[in-house]
């Protein structure tokens, strides 16, 4: 096929559940491409000599090669091509903000629509999972040094995957009853079905990785005890950033105030939480959007988002904003809460202020400035502040860790070793709230460092590591 013919193919669109049906349940909204649609989309790729898409991918997936294999119907080979760099393709293909990563860097996006790289990755991953072919058969013989992984999110899963395939027995300690970290308690099932997370865990268990749920490191066992009493030779801390940031307003503990990831965790762990008719969500990222769409699905009728900048500045992905608006959630731009009003300890109204955009920084992001005297009131049964998340430091209780002023762990950017030599860390606990792909990348880097540490080898020699903290 000539380049001109490839350029003439429009970007393929996936089928989606109808709005009236989907807002009553947590079924996955976006369907996978079928075979012919996937191949048609793959034919849009120009197989660039300098594939900029790869630079945009935090894991450096070999995108042109897996697309070439897909269009030749070599689905299995295409999948394993992705697995050379990514341990969680079925997850990343669903939850990564591709328009800011690989697709945002695709040359086809300069004059039209980028190649739907995420959907093509998903096609290969789902094809393998549905055929049960995603389990690696060749697992290494067990070695005599053990690794503890704290947290079962994407960073921990990836570290365990690579270490287990090197033969190091790994045990994942997870404080919650579910595994997957933010993937299972933060991201709603309509974006990431639990069967997908389970399939990724099957791949881990297939190589002997143990998972211990409901163990809170820092309370039930300390990191030091893991080393001194349980015999672990190294530890990877991938606890993520699960502590919701507060608005800092009076009455923020009154009934009707639920913070973003706390709210999502409760719903995702099975709690039946109907927040009432009117729900206000604060924030512009994917967590805010997940909260708003979850509130709709749990029975609230009038859900809207307060965001202090404009649509252009929203950090959420365009696809998520599109789905949100389709489902009837209104976004009140250039507005922020200033006071919570309640009666008898229960929220009744949220007082807000209008904002305008002021000075812009070097990246072009403009500072929201209050419009004095613009106060207005919103009736609300619940408010969900979803403005950001911080690291919960329970796991490192009793261990002398160096942390940044944002509370994230300080690590060597090349090795991800913390200030305690036998402890490594990566993912959101180092980067702050970030994408699953970045957590996967750091899980892989940490696994290589831990392997070298256990073998007494140089942690740095002969390595090229992307610094995601830049
Ligand atoms: Fe294909 Fe876009 Fe990557 Fe070029 S930049 S190889 S067109 S996906």
From TrEMBL:
Where on the tree of life does the source sit, at the highest rank?
Bacteria
Domain called Dihydroprymidine dehydrogenase: residue spans: 22-131
Q: What is this protein called?
A: NAD(P)-dependent oxidoreductase
Q: Which PANTHER family match?
A: GLUTAMATE SYNTHASE [NADPH] SMALL CHAIN, GLUTAMATE SYNTHASE [NADPH] SMALL CHAIN-RELATED
Organism, scientific name: Candidatus Desulfobia pelagia
Residue limits of the FAD/NAD(P)-binding domain?
Answer: 147-443
Q: Name one GO molecular function term.
A: iron-sulfur cluster binding
Instruction: Show the SUPFAM superfamilies listed in the entry.
Output: alpha-helical ferredoxin, Nucleotide-binding domain
């Amino acid at each position: 096929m000539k380049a001109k013919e490839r350029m003439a193919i429009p970007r393929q669109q996936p089928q989606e559940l109808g709005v009236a049906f989907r807002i009553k349940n947590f079924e996955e909204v976006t369907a996978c491409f079928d075979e012919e649609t996937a191949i048609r989309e793959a034919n849009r790729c120009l197989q660039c000599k300098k594939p900029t898409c790869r630079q945009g991918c935090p894991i450096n997936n070999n995108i042109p090669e897996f697309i070439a294999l897909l269009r030749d119907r070599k689905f299995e080979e295409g999948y394993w091509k992705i697995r050379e760099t990514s341990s969680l393709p079925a997850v990343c293909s669903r939850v990564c903000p591709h328009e800011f990563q690989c697709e945002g860097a695709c040359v086809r996006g300069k004059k039209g629509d980028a190649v739907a790289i995420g959907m093509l990755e998903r096609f290969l991953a789902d094809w393998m999972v549905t055929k049960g072919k995603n389990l690696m058969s060749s697992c290494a013989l067990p070695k005599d040094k053990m690794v503890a992984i704290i947290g079962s999110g994407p960073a921990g899963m990836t570290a365990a995957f690579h270490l287990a395939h090197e033969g190091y027995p790994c045990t994942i300690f997870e404080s919650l009853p579910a595994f997957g970290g933010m993937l299972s308690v933060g991201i709603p099932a309509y974006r990431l079905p639990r069967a997908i997370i389970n399939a990724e865990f099957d791949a881990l268990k297939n190589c002997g990785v143990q998972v211990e749920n409901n163990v809170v490191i820092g309370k039930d066992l300390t990191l030091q005890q893991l080393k001194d009493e349980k015999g672990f030779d190294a530890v990877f801390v991938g606890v993520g950033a699960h502590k919701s940031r507060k608005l800092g307003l009076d009455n923020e503990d009154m009934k009707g105030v639920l913070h973003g990831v706390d709210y999502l965790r409760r719903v995702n762990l099975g709690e039946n939480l109907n927040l009432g008719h009117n729900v206000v969500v604060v924030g512009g990222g994917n967590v805010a959007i997940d909260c708003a769409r979850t509130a709709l699905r749990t029975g609230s009728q009038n859900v809207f988002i307060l965001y202090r900048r404009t649509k252009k500045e929203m950090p959420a992905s365009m696809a998520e904003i599109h789905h949100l608006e389709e489902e009837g959630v209104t976004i009140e731009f250039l507005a922020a809460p200033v006071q919570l009003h309640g009666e008898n300890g229960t929220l009744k109204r949220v007082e807000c202020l209008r904002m305008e955009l002021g000075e812009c920084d070097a990246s072009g992001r403009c500072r929201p400035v209050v419009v004095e005297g613009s106060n207005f009131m919103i009736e609300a049964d619940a408010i969900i502040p979803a403005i950001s998340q911080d690291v919960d430091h329970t796991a490192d209780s009793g261990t002398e860790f160096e942390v940044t002023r944002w509370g994230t762990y300080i690590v060597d950017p090349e090795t991800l070793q913390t200030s305690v030599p036998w402890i490594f860390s990566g993912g959101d606990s180092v980067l702050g709230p970030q994408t699953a792909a970045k957590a996967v990348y750091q899980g892989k880097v940490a696994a290589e460092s831990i392997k070298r540490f256990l073998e007494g080898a140089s942690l740095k020699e002969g390595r090229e590591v992307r610094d995601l903290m830049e």
